[in-house]
Write a structure and sequence with these properties.
Layout lengths: L1 H8 L4 E2 H8 L3 H13 L3 E3 L10 E4 L15 H27 L5 H6 L11 H18 L28
Helix pairs in contact: 2-3
Length: 169
């Protein structure tokens, strides 16, 4: 839920009630999770919406990334990273299942959709640059509702670059 809240706040400031509606959760539940995110510095009060009955929240950092390697001897961190990996893998599986289950009949979207993978040989620096370039391009497309062109649809994009064991040049 917290990851999804951060994603929704990427679109702009919102209240716990607004976020709860979008997630199908109670405002009490979303409010609790927002306070936890605020405690750890991920979200804060939005100064652009002062006062009123409802508290407005915004993300602290629009370009947040999550480091998935853990410091040595920190089992709590490793457990959190393992749980986060599981969330991402479950999302990928749900998105893939939804894609295969849908039969929209829209030929343009059928042609645009893509699933694939390649084996390449690259350095860590080359993969870091490829990831940076992809993230910059994806970030341009993560636009707010008012900036979306007609015909834009929600599209789930995932990226993995996984070095394989025992395959050093």
């Amino acid at each position: 839920m917290r990851l999804r809240l951060l994603e929704l706040l990427r679109e702009g400031p919102a209240t716990a009630t607004q976020l709860g509606r979008r997630l199908g959760e109670s405002s009490g539940s979303t409010s609790y999770h927002l306070r936890v995110l605020a405690k750890h510095g991920f979200v804060e009060d939005d100064e652009g919406h002062p006062g009123g009955r409802e508290r407005w929240w915004r993300r602290v950092d629009e370009g947040m990334t999550i480091v998935t390697s853990s410091p040595a001897d920190e089992p709590e961190y490793e457990a959190a990273v393992a749980q986060l990996r599981e969330v991402f893998l479950q999302r990928d599986e749900r998105a893939l299942a939804a894609f295969f289950a849908s039969r929209s009949g829209d030929e343009a979207w059928a042609q645009a959709a893509f699933i694939g993978g390649w084996t390449i040989y690259a350095t860590a620096e080359e993969i870091a640059e490829l990831t940076r370039t992809l993230l910059e391009t994806i970030d341009v497309l993560r636009r707010s509702p008012e900036d979306r062109p007609p015909g834009a649809r929600r599209v789930y994009v995932t990226w993995r670059a996984l070095p394989q064991p025992g395959e050093e040049a």
